[in-house]
Amino acid sequence: MPESGKHILGTFNTALASLEDDLLMMASLVERNLRNAMTGLFTRNDDLCSVAIADDEEIDTLEKQIDRDGIELLRRFQPVASDLREVVAAMKLNNNLERIADQAKNIAKKARLLNRSPELQEVHSLQPMFTEAMGMYTDVLRAFGDRDTELAVAIKHRDKNVDALNVEIGEQLTQVMMEKPDRIADYLNLIFIVRHLERVGDHAKNIAEEVVYAISAKDIRHLREGR
Q: How far apart are alpha carbons 223 and 216 in whole angstroms?
């Protein structure tokens, strides 16, 4: 955060804190939607899926408000250096949060379709991937709140675990789908859900990169393992 007293009457600090409070509220809603969507899949609960779909509208509205507030903050205070990075990172985080919410909505829609058919036991093979992607998400929010660059960098490297699970589970489902052609549509929906989870990991990684840049001005988007 900018140093106390850096701006007249602390008005910039107050505006930025308000923006970040809205971001954290949005992040909490996104987490709830993602959990509802996946729980709706695992437990065949259409009500939870419907809640995740309906609540996406609230997140979209909040995203637009945060964007407007961020632009207004830039216009009013014209921040430079670290202050500018903080505002820009917050607005990029806002965009990534909205995209994670879209993945949750898409998962919920496909889960409702799956719930209309006999249960696929392979649904539960997605649990480790969901756990890993959700862990990245919750940890990157902690890195943002605590200004923890070490945690953010570690989260970036964890994305390879989600990518590996995406490939592994996708190949397994494709093989089973070939053996059960009467359930092709259902397996395709499950494969799409796997891909949505992979995108959640991607967006968590993007947020981690923005956290590091906002705090240290270091661009880690193309940082290789071990560097």
A: 14
